[in-house]
Amino acid sequence: ERERTLAMIKPDGLSGNYTERIKEVILESGFDIVKETAVQLDAERASLFYAEHSGRSFFDSLVKYMTSGPVLVMILERPDAILHWRVLIGPTDARKAKTSHPNSHKSYASFHFSIRAMCGVDSEKNCVHGSDSPQSAAREISFFFGDVRSDTVEHDE
Ligand code: CMP
Hints:
The chain is built from 8 helices and 4 strands. By secondary structure, the chain is an alpha+beta fold. Strands 2-3-1-4 form a 4-stranded antiparallel β-sheet, with helices on both faces. The two termini are 27 Å apart. Belongs to the NDK family.
């Protein structure tokens, strides 16, 4: 069944000029980009978006990172979009994404190309975000795009 998820290219992904390559991977992986918009988050909006992490030691640093430049948010759609996008971006810690190796049985299950392996740096600067459940996908999509449940893919003419 077709499903939607919220994908985000974080400030380091945008400033590092990874956007075009990431979009190619998205389209090659069978997603439609239903909507996209670039936004500059302020501390209040970034804190609200990551409210579930507000008690964590890394929270202030995360807000600083996420407000350091614009982000590109996209609604992606395909069958099982939430899980597929999470697999495609790889582990939260981009160092793990980079060191997964086909001959290392511990990480064998997660060995594949991942976007974070391509453009992430560490567990904070991991260059992309993806919703982790249907509930967060719904919340995160409406956070950036409002009520778009019946909107369909915009094709460029
Ligand atoms: P994301 O998948 O967007 O969800 C929460 C974000 O918090 C995560 O990516 C990272 O950018 C950041 N984050 C998660 N864990 C850590 C950590 N241990 N140290 C610093 N930042 C983190």
